[in-house]
Batch of 4 targets.
Target 1
Amino acid sequence: GHQIAAVSERPQTTWQQMKGIYSDPEHGQIIFVDTPGIHSAESAMNLAMLSGALEASIDADIVLVILDANVVKRWDLVILEQLGADERVVIVGNKIDLLEAIPASPLFDKIPDLKERPLCWTSAKDGTGVDGLLSEVFARLPEGPPLYDLEDLTDRPTRFIVAEFVRQSIFEYLQQEIPYSTFVEVEEYHEDKRPVYIGANIFVERESQKQILIGRKGQQIRQIGTRARRLIEELIGQRVYLDLWVKVLPKWTRKEAHLRRAGLLAGDKKLERAEGLVQEFRRNAVSDEPGHE
C-alpha cells in the first residue's frame, strides 16, 4: 500500500537492488527483492546493474519472473532458458488488464510448457491476482523467524526513497538518454524543520545535460521538484521544502569510484567481478533459436 521505489513507463527505471517488506500477522513475512531488469549491458553502469539482478536471482528462495502478458521479448525467453527447470521459479504474467482474455496471451505461444510451470496472472495497475500471488509465495517460502520488524516497509533509509522519487520525476519529464545519465544524492534531510527541509544534488555527465534538466528559466527543474515533493509528502505525511541542485560529474557512468558513490557497487563489490558475472550469463544465454544472440 506504499510506494517506495521509482516507477515509470520506461525500461530500466529500477537501477539497483531494493527490498520491499510485506508482513502478514497470520501468514508471515515476505522480503521482495526488486532488481534491475535483465537487459543487454554494455556500459560500466549497465554491467553493475545487471550483475545486481543476477546476484539476487542466485540468492533468492523464490524467483518471480515477471513478464508482460501482452508481448514476449527476447530477453524473456533468454531468462527462462537460463533458469530452466529451477524449482524456485514462478512465472508472473502481468498487465492482464490489457488482455481481452488470459488464453489470448502470447505467452502461451512462445513458452510451450507454460501451463506446466508455476504461474500467476496479475495486474499491478488494478491489483487483480495479487492476493493469489502472495498465497503462492507464502506456500513456497521456507519457514523461519521474521527478518524485519512488522512495521518496516524496506531496508532502505528514507533518504534513498527520496532520491528514487526525484529520479522518477526526471524519468517522467525528460526523454532520450538524460534520465539514464543521472543519479541523485540527498545531501541534507532535516526532519526537525517545518516544513521538512531536503537538499539534494542531481548529477549528470555533461554540461549540455545540465542545461536541459534545468530548462528555460529553471522551468524544467521546478516541474521535476514539484512532482518529487508531492511523492515525498505522501510518503512521510508532512509538508516538504525540496531544494534541488544540478551538477556535472563527467563520465560518472564509466568510473568505478562514481558507480560506488551512486550505490551501484556496494560493499567490497568490484566492477571486475560484475563484468565476470555478466560474461558468464552471456555465455550461457547463447542459443541457435531465431531472435536470440
Note: The radius of gyration is 20 Å.
Target 2
Amino acid sequence: MAEQPTDFRRGRPAPSDNNFELFAWFFMRISGVVLLILALGHLTIMHLINSIEDIDYWFVAERWSTPFWRIYDALMLILALLHGLNGLRIIIDDYLRPGGARTLALSILYLVGLIFMIGGLIVLLTFQPQL
C-alpha cells in the first residue's frame, strides 16, 4: 500500500541543515509581505488616486524628481527580482538533478537576473527628468 502524503497545507518546511537555504526561506516570506505592501501602494498611487490618462512621461518625471519615489521603485524592483529569482532557483533545484543541466540553468538564471537588476537600477538611478 502506498504511503500517505504529508500535510502540504503548512507549506514548505524551514530548512535546518543549511544556513543559506534557511536565509532564502525567511527571505521569501518577508519579501513577499513587503512586496504586497509596496505593490498595493503602487497600485493605489498609479491607478486609484491618479487617472490612467494622467500617467505619462511628465507624471513619471515629476514623480522621480524626488528621491523617495526612486527609492520606493528601486526597493520594489530589487525585492521583486530577488523574490522571483529565488523562487525559480528553488524550482530548478527541485526538478533538475545536480550536474551540467542544473548548473547551466542556474547560471543562465543568475546572468539574466543580474542583467535585469543592473538595467533597472541604471534607469532608476540615472534618469534625469526634463521638466
Note: Residues 19-49 form the longest helix (31 residues).
Target 3
Amino acid sequence: MKTVPSPAVPPDPSPFLSLIESKRDGRELSPESIAGFVRDFTSGAIPDYQMSAMLMAIYFAGMTPAETRALTLAMRDSGEVLTFPDDPRPIVDKHSTGGVGDKVSLPLAPLLAALDFRVPMISGRGLGITGGTLDKLESIPGFTTQLDPARLVEQVQRIGVAMAGQTDTMIPADKKLYALRDVTGTVPSIPLITASILSKKLAESLNALVMDVKFGAAAFMPAEPEARRLADSIASLAEACGVRTAVLISDMNTPLGRSAGNWLEIQESMECLENKGPEDLRQLVVECAAQLLILTSGARDLADARTRAIDCLASGKPRRKWNELLAAQGADLDAFQRRLRLDHTAAHLVEVPATRDGMVSRCDARVIGEVVRDLGGGRLTKESIIDPAVGIDRLAKPGDVVRPGDILCRIHAATEAGALAAQARVAEAFEVSDLTSDG
C-alpha cells in the first residue's frame, strides 16, 4: 500500500513578522517590541528584507509619538552614549536638515566653544546635492574626523569642541537603518527622520539643541508646512527626552552664502569667523548661537543673546578656537593657511557672466547643488569619491544688481570639459529681471 505523505506543516510566523503585520494594519507597537526588533536587527538576527518591510509599513502607517520615542531611544541605546564629567558649561549642538552651501556648523561650533559651551558635534557626510560637514572638514590638510568616544569627550572637556563622525560603536542601529532606508524609498518618513536625527543627538548627552529645518527647491522638505511638521516632531520628542530645543525654519530655494563645494565652503566659513563674509550665513550662525544661549539661560532675552554672539564673533576668539580645533584633530595649520591664500585649488576656473542689465531674481539652489555634485563635489552613491577642490563661488544672489559682463558665479572644475559643461547648466540657475523705475 502506497503511503501518502502528510502535508507539510508551515512554520509559525516569526514574532517579527507579526509585528510587521501589526504595523501594516495600523496598530501601535509596544516600546518593548520596538526595542526588541531594533536590538535584533542591529545584531543581524533580522534580515534586511524583513526590516525593509517594516520600514515600508512605518512609511505608510506612521508612528505615534510614543512609538517614535521608543524607536529613538532604542536606536540611541544600540551603542555607546557619551558620558561627560560634571561641568558648569552646558553641552549643546546644532543640526540642519541639509542644503546647498549650508556651512553653518563650521563657524558655529568654535563660536559656541568661545561662548563657554561644550560642543560634541557628531556630523555626517553629504549625499546627492546636500553637502556634508565631514566632507568639508576632510578638505583641510591632515584633519581627521575619526575620534573614538573617549578621545572626543577628552577633547571637548579640554578645548570645548570636537567635530567628528559617527563611530562603529555609537548608534550602530541608525547606521544600518539609514543605509536600508536609502535604498528602499523610505527616507521621507517624519517618524524615521526624527528617530535618526535624535538618536544621534541624544547619544551626545546634550542639554540643549537648535534645529535648522529647511524647505524649498533644494531641501528635503519642499514646502514650509512639511518642514514645520518635521520641526514639531523633533522638538516635542527632544523636549520629552530632557533636551531643551529650539527650531529655526529657513529657506533653501537659494544657496546659503555665496559658495558651494567643500573647500570653497571652508574658505567662506573662515571669512565668517573673521567677522566678514556673506550676511545670510552670518545671521544664521548668530541666530543659532543666540537660541542656545536662551535655552541654557545664558542671556536675558533674544536681543541680549544676539548681542553676545555678535560681540564674541567680532572678538576673534572663535577664530582662535578654530585653530585649536584643527590642531587637536591633526590638521597641518601652515598648509591650511597657505591654501586659504590661494584664489582656487581646482585645475580649471571659468566665469558665468551676466548678459543684461537687471536685478538677480532667482539663483536656483537645486541647479547649483546638482552641478556641484556632478563636478565631483557630491555623491551619487555612498561609494562616490569626493573632489574637495571643485564647486561654485562668488554667487550672485537675489537682489544683486548686475550689468552685462558682471560675474554671476565662478565654476571650479577638475577638467576643462567639466567646466564648460557646468557653465552652460549654471546659467539656467539664474534669472535676471528688469530693474524697477527706482532701482
Note: Residues 1-13 have pLDDT under 50 and may be disordered.
Target 4
Amino acid sequence: MVKIHTESIREIGAISYRDRLRTGMIGRKAVSILRVSVVGLPSGLSGLVVLSDLQGSGGSANAPRLPTFDALDELSVLAADGAIPPLQDMIGVSTGDLYAILDLHKRGGSGDVRGPWLAMRQHFRAVVGVAGNHDQFGATPAEYKDFRSTDGVHLLDGESVAIAGVRFGGISGVIGDPKRPFRRFEADFHAEIDRLVQGRPDILLLHQGPVVSLDPYRSNDGIRDRCARLRGGVVLCGHNHTEHPFDELATGTQVLSAHERVIVLTAA
C-alpha cells in the first residue's frame, strides 16, 4: 500500500510562467516543484511525478509554449543533478488542465493537450492521468480514440489500470452539465467514485477532488465522503486552489493536490 510521509514535503525547485490573473492583469506565476517521500512503491519503480492546472504561457515571449514543457525541462535538470531519480524510472501523472491560451487574451480556455501528454510519455516510463474540464484530446472522436490507444499512455475516465505494480483508478472532469466535455451530473460522478473505490486502487486520480477549497462554493462534501471510503489509499487531484497540498481524511485516506504544482513522489 502506497503511503505518503507528510513530514517529508519540501520544495526542490520552481518554474514560472505568464498568466492572466483573476484580477484581469497579466503577471508571472511561480509554481513549486515539491519532493515527497512515500512507502509502498513496488521494486523497480523509483517514483511518480504529478502535475496539474499548469495554465498559462511558458517558454519565451517570442516562442510561448504550455508550461508543462517548462516543467519537464526543469525536472530533467533536477534528475541530471541527482536531486530526483531518472525520469525514465518514474511514472508521469496528470490530474488535468494542462491547456491555456498562449496569447493570454483570456484566462484559461480549452484546447488540445496531446502535446504535453506525449512529451511526458517521452520522458517517463509511462504516463497516466485524467482529463481536466479544460482539456481536449484531438478535434474528433477518432483522434481521441487514437490517442487513448497510444502505447504507454493511460487516460482514465471511469477505468482502472495497473502500471509497474501500482493500481490506478481515475475519473476525468468535474461535476457539471454532461452536454459539455468531461462533465457529469453530481450523482453520476459520485457513483463512479463508489465503483472505483470498491476495486481498491492504490491511487485514485481525480481532477475535481475531495480537498477543502479556499473557495467554499467549489468544495464538495459528497466527493470527500466517498474518497474517505478508500481507507488507507491515496487520492491525487487538482482543480481547486488550496494553500497546502496535503490533507488526510478521518479514515486515513491521504489526499495530495497538485493544483498549480509539480510533485515528485519518491521511494523513502
Note: The CA atoms of residues 37 and 268 lie 5 Å apart.
